[in-house]
Amino acid sequence: MPPDMRAAAAALDLLPRETLHGTVAGLGGLAVTLEGFGPMAAIGDRVRLTAPNGAEALAEIAAFRDGRAEAIAMGPLAGLSDGLRAVLAPRPALAVSDAWLGRVLDPMGVPMDGRPPPAPGALPRATHAPAPPAGQRARLGPRMGLGVRALDIFAPVRQGQRLGLFAASGVGKSTLLAMLAGGVAADVIVFALVGERGRELREFIEDDLGPARLAKSVVICATSDTAAPMRREAAYAAMTVAEHFRDQGRQVLLLMDSVTRFALALREIGLAVREPPATRGYPPSVFTELPRLLERAGPGIEGCGGAITALFTVLVEGDDHDEPVADAVRGILDGHVVLDRRIAEEGRYPPVDVLRSLSRTAPGVLDAHERPLVAQARRMLSTYAEVRDLVRLGAYRAGHDEAADEAVRLAPAIEAVLAQPKGEASDPDQAFAALAAALGGA
Region entry Disordered: which residue ranges (predicted)? Predict the structure, then answer.
Protein backbone atom coordinates (compact mmCIF):
# COMPACT_ATOMS: atom_id res chain seq x y z
CA MET A 1 0.00 0.00 0.00
CA PRO A 2 1.46 3.45 -0.91
CA PRO A 3 2.42 5.74 2.00
CA ASP A 4 -0.46 8.17 1.24
CA MET A 5 -2.97 5.33 1.37
CA ARG A 6 -1.49 4.06 4.65
CA ALA A 7 -1.76 7.56 6.17
CA ALA A 8 -5.38 7.86 5.01
CA ALA A 9 -6.25 4.43 6.42
CA ALA A 10 -4.64 5.32 9.75
CA ALA A 11 -6.56 8.61 9.87
CA LEU A 12 -9.87 6.82 9.19
CA ASP A 13 -9.13 4.31 11.94
CA LEU A 14 -8.67 7.18 14.40
CA LEU A 15 -11.97 8.93 13.57
CA PRO A 16 -14.46 8.95 16.47
CA ARG A 17 -16.93 6.13 16.23
CA GLU A 18 -20.54 6.15 17.37
CA THR A 19 -20.61 6.37 21.14
CA LEU A 20 -20.95 2.89 22.60
CA HIS A 21 -21.78 2.17 26.20
CA GLY A 22 -21.16 -0.88 28.33
CA THR A 23 -21.24 -1.81 31.99
CA VAL A 24 -18.58 -2.75 34.50
CA ALA A 25 -19.27 -6.32 35.58
CA GLY A 26 -16.21 -6.82 37.79
CA LEU A 27 -13.12 -5.12 39.20
CA GLY A 28 -10.00 -6.60 40.71
CA GLY A 29 -6.36 -5.58 40.73
CA LEU A 30 -5.69 -4.22 37.26
CA ALA A 31 -8.50 -6.18 35.62
CA VAL A 32 -11.85 -4.70 34.61
CA THR A 33 -14.61 -6.99 33.28
CA LEU A 34 -17.03 -5.30 30.88
CA GLU A 35 -20.30 -6.40 29.30
CA GLY A 36 -22.70 -4.89 26.82
CA PHE A 37 -20.34 -3.91 24.02
CA GLY A 38 -21.00 -6.97 21.88
CA PRO A 39 -19.03 -7.24 18.63
CA MET A 40 -18.48 -3.48 18.35
CA ALA A 41 -15.47 -3.46 20.67
CA ALA A 42 -12.09 -4.98 19.80
CA ILE A 43 -8.80 -5.78 21.47
CA GLY A 44 -6.79 -2.58 21.80
CA ASP A 45 -9.86 -0.35 22.19
CA ARG A 46 -9.98 1.91 25.23
CA VAL A 47 -12.91 2.55 27.53
CA ARG A 48 -13.52 5.37 29.98
CA LEU A 49 -15.07 4.54 33.35
CA THR A 50 -16.84 7.27 35.33
CA ALA A 51 -18.11 7.00 38.92
CA PRO A 52 -21.00 9.08 40.33
CA ASN A 53 -18.52 11.01 42.49
CA GLY A 54 -16.62 12.09 39.37
CA ALA A 55 -13.73 9.61 39.68
CA GLU A 56 -12.54 8.44 36.26
CA ALA A 57 -10.26 5.76 34.92
CA LEU A 58 -9.13 4.66 31.49
CA ALA A 59 -8.81 0.97 30.62
CA GLU A 60 -7.71 -0.95 27.53
CA ILE A 61 -9.44 -4.08 26.29
CA ALA A 62 -6.96 -6.94 26.31
CA ALA A 63 -9.08 -10.09 25.97
CA PHE A 64 -12.57 -11.47 25.44
CA ARG A 65 -13.90 -14.40 27.40
CA ASP A 66 -17.42 -15.87 27.77
CA GLY A 67 -19.04 -12.96 25.97
CA ARG A 68 -17.38 -10.35 28.14
CA ALA A 69 -14.49 -8.00 27.52
CA GLU A 70 -11.53 -8.02 29.91
CA ALA A 71 -9.69 -4.72 30.15
CA ILE A 72 -6.60 -3.54 32.00
CA ALA A 73 -6.79 -0.29 33.97
CA MET A 74 -4.33 2.41 32.95
CA GLY A 75 -4.54 4.11 36.34
CA PRO A 76 -5.85 3.64 39.89
CA LEU A 77 -9.31 2.13 40.28
CA ALA A 78 -9.97 3.78 43.65
CA GLY A 79 -13.51 5.15 43.84
CA LEU A 80 -14.87 2.89 41.10
CA SER A 81 -17.37 0.10 41.68
CA ASP A 82 -19.34 -2.63 39.95
CA GLY A 83 -22.15 -1.56 37.62
CA LEU A 84 -20.60 1.68 36.38
CA ARG A 85 -21.10 2.82 32.80
CA ALA A 86 -18.15 2.36 30.45
CA VAL A 87 -17.84 4.43 27.27
CA LEU A 88 -15.76 3.35 24.30
CA ALA A 89 -12.96 5.89 23.73
CA PRO A 90 -10.76 6.57 20.66
CA ARG A 91 -7.80 4.30 20.03
CA PRO A 92 -4.39 5.57 21.24
CA ALA A 93 -2.83 8.16 18.93
CA LEU A 94 -0.40 11.06 19.23
CA ALA A 95 -0.44 14.28 17.19
CA VAL A 96 3.34 14.83 17.18
CA SER A 97 4.81 18.12 15.98
CA ASP A 98 8.05 20.10 16.22
CA ALA A 99 6.58 21.76 19.31
CA TRP A 100 7.30 18.48 21.14
CA LEU A 101 11.05 19.14 20.94
CA GLY A 102 12.49 20.16 24.29
CA ARG A 103 9.53 18.71 26.17
CA VAL A 104 9.05 16.02 28.83
CA LEU A 105 5.73 14.21 28.34
CA ASP A 106 3.91 11.16 29.60
CA PRO A 107 2.79 8.40 27.18
CA MET A 108 -0.52 10.21 26.57
CA GLY A 109 1.27 13.39 25.50
CA VAL A 110 0.47 15.18 28.78
CA PRO A 111 3.30 17.52 29.94
CA MET A 112 5.40 16.45 32.93
CA ASP A 113 7.58 19.57 32.89
CA GLY A 114 5.00 22.05 34.22
CA ARG A 115 4.59 23.80 30.87
CA PRO A 116 1.47 24.07 28.68
CA PRO A 117 0.66 21.20 26.30
CA PRO A 118 2.65 21.36 23.03
CA ALA A 119 0.86 22.37 19.86
CA PRO A 120 -0.47 19.22 18.16
CA GLY A 121 0.49 18.11 14.68
CA ALA A 122 -1.93 18.01 11.77
CA LEU A 123 -2.38 14.23 11.66
CA PRO A 124 -2.50 11.97 14.73
CA ARG A 125 -0.43 8.80 14.50
CA ALA A 126 -1.57 5.48 15.94
CA THR A 127 0.85 4.40 18.66
CA HIS A 128 0.38 0.69 17.93
CA ALA A 129 1.45 0.74 14.29
CA PRO A 130 3.17 -1.94 12.20
CA ALA A 131 6.80 -1.73 11.13
CA PRO A 132 7.52 -0.54 7.58
CA PRO A 133 7.22 -3.38 5.04
CA ALA A 134 10.50 -5.30 5.03
CA GLY A 135 10.73 -5.36 1.24
CA GLN A 136 10.35 -1.58 0.96
CA ARG A 137 12.65 -0.44 3.74
CA ALA A 138 15.80 1.44 2.91
CA ARG A 139 19.14 -0.15 3.74
CA LEU A 140 21.32 0.94 6.64
CA GLY A 141 23.15 4.21 6.13
CA PRO A 142 26.82 5.14 6.63
CA ARG A 143 28.78 4.83 9.85
CA MET A 144 27.47 6.88 12.74
CA GLY A 145 30.01 7.93 15.35
CA LEU A 146 28.71 7.35 18.88
CA GLY A 147 31.23 9.54 20.65
CA VAL A 148 32.31 6.64 22.90
CA ARG A 149 35.67 5.09 21.94
CA ALA A 150 34.89 1.60 23.23
CA LEU A 151 31.77 1.45 21.04
CA ASP A 152 33.20 3.16 17.96
CA ILE A 153 36.07 0.64 17.92
CA PHE A 154 34.46 -2.64 18.99
CA ALA A 155 30.75 -2.12 18.24
CA PRO A 156 30.52 0.40 15.36
CA VAL A 157 27.04 1.47 14.31
CA ARG A 158 25.45 2.52 11.02
CA GLN A 159 22.53 4.91 10.62
CA GLY A 160 19.34 2.96 11.25
CA GLN A 161 20.99 0.19 13.27
CA ARG A 162 19.52 -1.18 16.51
CA LEU A 163 21.87 -2.01 19.35
CA GLY A 164 21.24 -3.44 22.82
CA LEU A 165 23.02 -2.32 26.00
CA PHE A 166 23.01 -5.30 28.39
CA ALA A 167 23.85 -4.70 32.05
CA ALA A 168 22.79 -5.34 35.61
CA SER A 169 21.38 -2.52 37.71
CA GLY A 170 23.72 0.17 38.97
CA VAL A 171 26.46 -0.31 36.36
CA GLY A 172 25.98 3.06 34.64
CA LYS A 173 23.53 2.59 31.77
CA SER A 174 21.83 5.97 32.27
CA THR A 175 25.16 7.81 32.29
CA LEU A 176 26.22 6.01 29.12
CA LEU A 177 22.92 6.99 27.48
CA ALA A 178 23.65 10.62 28.34
CA MET A 179 27.12 10.30 26.77
CA LEU A 180 25.55 8.86 23.64
CA ALA A 181 23.02 11.69 23.49
CA GLY A 182 25.87 14.18 23.45
CA GLY A 183 28.18 12.28 21.11
CA VAL A 184 25.86 11.22 18.27
CA ALA A 185 25.26 13.62 15.38
CA ALA A 186 21.47 13.20 15.21
CA ASP A 187 18.80 15.69 14.21
CA VAL A 188 16.40 14.57 16.93
CA ILE A 189 16.86 12.49 20.10
CA VAL A 190 13.92 10.61 21.61
CA PHE A 191 14.18 9.19 25.12
CA ALA A 192 11.85 6.45 26.35
CA LEU A 193 12.10 6.18 30.14
CA VAL A 194 10.05 3.09 30.96
CA GLY A 195 9.48 2.48 34.67
CA GLU A 196 11.96 5.19 35.65
CA ARG A 197 12.43 6.14 39.32
CA GLY A 198 10.46 9.32 39.90
CA ARG A 199 13.22 11.12 41.78
CA GLU A 200 15.72 10.50 38.97
CA LEU A 201 13.77 12.17 36.16
CA ARG A 202 14.83 15.74 36.91
CA GLU A 203 18.37 14.62 37.75
CA PHE A 204 18.67 12.93 34.37
CA ILE A 205 17.18 15.88 32.46
CA GLU A 206 19.06 18.67 34.25
CA ASP A 207 22.39 17.00 35.08
CA ASP A 208 22.94 14.27 32.49
CA LEU A 209 21.07 15.75 29.53
CA GLY A 210 21.34 19.50 30.01
CA PRO A 211 19.50 22.34 28.24
CA ALA A 212 21.40 22.11 24.93
CA ARG A 213 20.67 18.41 24.39
CA LEU A 214 17.12 18.71 25.71
CA ALA A 215 16.37 21.39 23.09
CA LYS A 216 16.55 18.80 20.30
CA SER A 217 15.05 15.97 22.35
CA VAL A 218 11.67 14.58 23.26
CA VAL A 219 11.47 12.72 26.59
CA ILE A 220 8.62 10.25 27.10
CA CYS A 221 8.45 9.00 30.67
CA ALA A 222 6.29 6.60 32.69
CA THR A 223 7.59 6.29 36.24
CA SER A 224 7.69 3.04 38.17
CA ASP A 225 4.52 3.85 40.13
CA THR A 226 2.32 4.05 37.03
CA ALA A 227 0.12 1.17 35.92
CA ALA A 228 1.56 -1.52 33.66
CA PRO A 229 -0.33 -0.30 30.52
CA MET A 230 1.16 3.18 30.96
CA ARG A 231 4.69 1.76 31.27
CA ARG A 232 4.11 -0.33 28.18
CA GLU A 233 2.63 2.66 26.36
CA ALA A 234 5.75 4.76 27.09
CA ALA A 235 7.75 2.52 24.74
CA TYR A 236 5.09 2.67 22.00
CA ALA A 237 4.65 6.43 22.37
CA ALA A 238 8.40 7.09 22.11
CA MET A 239 8.61 4.88 19.02
CA THR A 240 5.70 6.81 17.49
CA VAL A 241 7.45 10.13 18.13
CA ALA A 242 10.66 8.78 16.57
CA GLU A 243 8.73 7.55 13.52
CA HIS A 244 7.17 10.99 13.04
CA PHE A 245 10.56 12.67 12.75
CA ARG A 246 12.03 9.81 10.70
CA ASP A 247 9.25 10.11 8.14
CA GLN A 248 10.16 13.80 7.79
CA GLY A 249 13.60 12.71 6.55
CA ARG A 250 15.45 13.37 9.82
CA GLN A 251 18.09 11.24 11.50
CA VAL A 252 16.65 10.17 14.85
CA LEU A 253 18.46 8.66 17.83
CA LEU A 254 16.09 6.62 20.01
CA LEU A 255 17.35 5.73 23.50
CA MET A 256 15.07 3.40 25.46
CA ASP A 257 15.63 2.52 29.12
CA SER A 258 14.62 -0.20 29.43
CA VAL A 259 13.22 -3.01 27.29
CA THR A 260 13.19 -5.26 30.35
CA ARG A 261 10.74 -3.02 32.21
CA PHE A 262 8.63 -2.92 29.03
CA ALA A 263 8.58 -6.74 29.10
CA LEU A 264 7.70 -6.77 32.80
CA ALA A 265 4.75 -4.49 32.09
CA LEU A 266 3.62 -6.87 29.34
CA ARG A 267 3.91 -9.75 31.82
CA GLU A 268 1.67 -7.95 34.34
CA ILE A 269 -0.92 -7.33 31.64
CA GLY A 270 -0.82 -10.91 30.38
CA LEU A 271 -1.16 -12.44 33.82
CA ALA A 272 -3.99 -10.03 34.72
CA VAL A 273 -6.08 -11.38 31.83
CA ARG A 274 -5.24 -14.94 32.84
CA GLU A 275 -2.76 -15.71 30.09
CA PRO A 276 -0.78 -18.80 31.15
CA PRO A 277 2.80 -18.15 32.27
CA ALA A 278 5.39 -19.94 30.16
CA THR A 279 9.11 -19.16 30.12
CA ARG A 280 10.13 -18.15 33.66
CA GLY A 281 6.71 -16.70 34.29
CA TYR A 282 6.52 -14.67 31.06
CA PRO A 283 3.35 -15.28 29.01
CA PRO A 284 3.86 -16.07 25.31
CA SER A 285 2.46 -12.67 24.27
CA VAL A 286 5.56 -10.95 25.70
CA PHE A 287 7.75 -12.58 23.06
CA THR A 288 5.23 -11.63 20.38
CA GLU A 289 5.17 -7.98 21.37
CA LEU A 290 8.95 -7.54 21.66
CA PRO A 291 9.68 -7.86 17.91
CA ARG A 292 6.59 -5.79 17.07
CA LEU A 293 8.12 -2.90 18.99
CA LEU A 294 11.80 -3.35 18.13
CA GLU A 295 11.25 -3.92 14.40
CA ARG A 296 9.66 -0.48 14.07
CA ALA A 297 13.06 1.14 14.61
CA GLY A 298 15.52 1.42 11.73
CA PRO A 299 15.38 2.98 8.26
CA GLY A 300 12.08 4.13 6.84
CA ILE A 301 10.54 3.42 3.46
CA GLU A 302 13.01 3.71 0.57
CA GLY A 303 13.24 7.35 -0.43
CA CYS A 304 12.13 9.00 2.83
CA GLY A 305 15.77 9.70 3.79
CA GLY A 306 15.26 9.34 7.52
CA ALA A 307 16.22 6.57 9.92
CA ILE A 308 15.84 5.65 13.58
CA THR A 309 19.14 4.58 15.11
CA ALA A 310 18.07 2.92 18.35
CA LEU A 311 19.85 1.79 21.49
CA PHE A 312 17.82 -0.27 23.94
CA THR A 313 19.00 -1.05 27.45
CA VAL A 314 18.33 -4.52 28.82
CA LEU A 315 18.51 -5.29 32.54
CA VAL A 316 20.05 -8.71 33.17
CA GLU A 317 19.04 -10.04 36.56
CA GLY A 318 21.95 -11.52 38.45
CA ASP A 319 24.21 -10.97 35.42
CA ASP A 320 22.32 -13.79 33.65
CA HIS A 321 22.64 -12.84 29.99
CA ASP A 322 20.70 -15.93 28.93
CA GLU A 323 17.48 -15.05 30.76
CA PRO A 324 14.43 -15.04 28.44
CA VAL A 325 14.05 -11.32 27.69
CA ALA A 326 17.77 -10.72 27.17
CA ASP A 327 18.01 -13.78 24.93
CA ALA A 328 14.99 -12.75 22.85
CA VAL A 329 16.15 -9.14 22.44
CA ARG A 330 19.69 -10.19 21.51
CA GLY A 331 18.26 -12.29 18.68
CA ILE A 332 16.17 -9.40 17.30
CA LEU A 333 18.68 -6.54 17.41
CA ASP A 334 21.68 -5.84 15.18
CA GLY A 335 24.27 -6.17 17.91
CA HIS A 336 24.80 -6.03 21.65
CA VAL A 337 27.05 -4.23 24.11
CA VAL A 338 27.74 -5.81 27.51
CA LEU A 339 28.44 -3.58 30.51
CA ASP A 340 30.32 -5.52 33.18
CA ARG A 341 30.11 -4.79 36.90
CA ARG A 342 33.63 -6.14 37.49
CA ILE A 343 35.08 -3.62 35.03
CA ALA A 344 33.11 -0.82 36.70
CA GLU A 345 34.42 -1.88 40.12
CA GLU A 346 37.96 -1.72 38.76
CA GLY A 347 37.37 1.95 37.94
CA ARG A 348 37.26 1.89 34.14
CA TYR A 349 34.32 3.76 32.66
CA PRO A 350 32.39 3.08 30.53
CA PRO A 351 32.60 -0.55 31.71
CA VAL A 352 32.14 -2.10 28.26
CA ASP A 353 33.22 -5.73 28.03
CA VAL A 354 34.55 -5.52 24.49
CA LEU A 355 35.21 -9.26 24.26
CA ARG A 356 31.50 -10.02 24.75
CA SER A 357 30.19 -7.12 22.67
CA LEU A 358 29.65 -7.09 18.93
CA SER A 359 27.98 -5.25 16.10
CA ARG A 360 26.56 -7.32 13.25
CA THR A 361 27.32 -4.50 10.83
CA ALA A 362 31.02 -4.21 11.79
CA PRO A 363 32.33 -6.02 8.67
CA GLY A 364 30.68 -3.42 6.45
CA VAL A 365 31.66 -0.46 8.63
CA LEU A 366 35.33 -0.93 9.45
CA ASP A 367 37.90 0.26 6.90
CA ALA A 368 40.69 -2.00 5.66
CA HIS A 369 43.25 -0.47 8.02
CA GLU A 370 40.86 -0.64 11.02
CA ARG A 371 39.99 -4.35 10.89
CA PRO A 372 43.49 -5.62 11.79
CA LEU A 373 43.68 -3.12 14.66
CA VAL A 374 40.41 -4.39 16.12
CA ALA A 375 41.44 -8.04 15.65
CA GLN A 376 44.82 -7.44 17.31
CA ALA A 377 43.26 -5.54 20.21
CA ARG A 378 40.73 -8.32 20.81
CA ARG A 379 43.51 -10.90 20.73
CA MET A 380 45.61 -8.92 23.23
CA LEU A 381 42.71 -8.42 25.64
CA SER A 382 41.64 -12.07 25.38
CA THR A 383 45.16 -13.33 26.08
CA TYR A 384 45.57 -10.89 28.97
CA ALA A 385 42.28 -12.09 30.50
CA GLU A 386 43.76 -15.60 30.70
CA VAL A 387 46.82 -14.52 32.68
CA ARG A 388 45.43 -11.52 34.57
CA ASP A 389 44.98 -13.37 37.87
CA LEU A 390 48.57 -14.65 37.71
CA VAL A 391 49.82 -11.10 37.12
CA ARG A 392 47.89 -9.78 40.11
CA LEU A 393 49.20 -12.54 42.36
CA GLY A 394 52.75 -11.95 41.20
CA ALA A 395 52.94 -15.51 39.90
CA TYR A 396 53.35 -14.58 36.24
CA ARG A 397 56.86 -15.11 34.83
CA ALA A 398 57.79 -13.39 31.59
CA GLY A 399 59.64 -15.24 28.87
CA HIS A 400 57.60 -18.45 28.77
CA ASP A 401 54.95 -17.28 26.27
CA GLU A 402 55.69 -14.53 23.76
CA ALA A 403 52.00 -13.80 23.07
CA ALA A 404 51.24 -13.52 26.78
CA ASP A 405 54.22 -11.24 27.32
CA GLU A 406 52.99 -8.92 24.56
CA ALA A 407 49.46 -8.94 25.99
CA VAL A 408 50.70 -8.07 29.49
CA ARG A 409 52.69 -5.18 28.02
CA LEU A 410 49.96 -3.75 25.76
CA ALA A 411 46.69 -4.47 27.62
CA PRO A 412 47.01 -1.53 30.06
CA ALA A 413 47.47 0.88 27.14
CA ILE A 414 44.39 -0.56 25.38
CA GLU A 415 42.39 -0.24 28.59
CA ALA A 416 43.47 3.40 28.82
CA VAL A 417 42.07 4.02 25.33
CA LEU A 418 38.75 2.46 26.34
CA ALA A 419 38.46 4.61 29.47
CA GLN A 420 36.54 7.81 28.82
CA PRO A 421 35.19 10.27 31.40
CA LYS A 422 31.67 11.61 31.16
CA GLY A 423 31.55 14.73 29.00
CA GLU A 424 34.58 13.85 26.87
CA ALA A 425 33.76 13.74 23.17
CA SER A 426 35.45 11.49 20.63
CA ASP A 427 35.04 10.39 17.02
CA PRO A 428 35.98 7.17 15.18
CA ASP A 429 39.14 8.61 13.62
CA GLN A 430 40.46 9.78 16.98
CA ALA A 431 39.51 6.47 18.59
CA PHE A 432 41.41 4.37 16.02
CA ALA A 433 44.41 6.70 16.10
CA ALA A 434 44.60 6.22 19.87
CA LEU A 435 44.25 2.45 19.48
CA ALA A 436 46.99 2.32 16.84
CA ALA A 437 49.29 4.24 19.18
CA ALA A 438 48.52 1.87 22.06
CA LEU A 439 49.19 -1.23 19.95
CA GLY A 440 52.40 0.34 18.70
CA GLY A 441 53.67 0.41 22.26
CA ALA A 442 53.50 4.18 22.57
Answer: 114-139
